[in-house]
Design a protein that fits this description.
2 domains; 1 helix; 10% helix; two-stranded antiparallel sheet; mainly beta; four-stranded antiparallel beta barrel; 6 strands
C-alpha cells in the first residue's frame, strides 16, 4: 500500500482512493497502452518479412548479447508472437531470434 509522510509527527496515512485508482489504471494497462510505440523490436511475426535487414541473437551469443546483422531468408517461428523474438534464418544460413528490425523495407539481394 502507498503511504505519505508529509509531517514527521503524523502517522503514515494511505493515499486517497482516487490516486490509487489512477495509479492502478495507468500501471495495469489502462492509460499506458495508449502511449505504446508500434512493436518493431522483433517479437511480432507480422512485422518480419523475408528480405528485411535485422539484428538477431544467435543461441551461442545469448549470454554475451552480441548481435548478428543479416537479411531474413525464412521465418521459422509459427506463433504470431514470441517474447524472446521471432526465430529466423538469415541468407547466410545462421539461425537466431530477431532483436531489432533495422530496415523495414525489403533489401534487394
Amino acid at each position: 500500500m502507498l503511504y505519505s509522510t508529509t509531517k514527521a509527527k503524523d502517522i503514515k496515512k494511505p493515499y486517497p482512493n482516487k490516486l490509487i485508482a489512477v495509479y492502478l489504471l495507468y500501471n495495469i494497462g489502462g492509460l499506458s497502452t495508449l502511449r505504446k510505440k508500434p512493436d518493431m523490436n522483433g517479437t511480432t511475426r507480422a512485422n518480419i518479412k523475408p528480405g528485411m535487414l535485422v539484428n538477431i541473437i544467435l543461441k551461442k551469443d545469448q549470454r554475451s548479447g552480441v548481435f548478428t546483422k543479416g537479411i531474413v531468408q525464412d521465418i521459422l517461428t509459427s506463433a504470431p508472437k514470441h517474447h524472446h523474438g521471432i526465430k529466423v534464418r538469415l541468407q547466410d544460413g545462421q539461425v537466431g531470434r530477431v532483436q531489432e528490425i533495422l530496415d523495414d523495407n525489403e533489401v534487394d539481394s
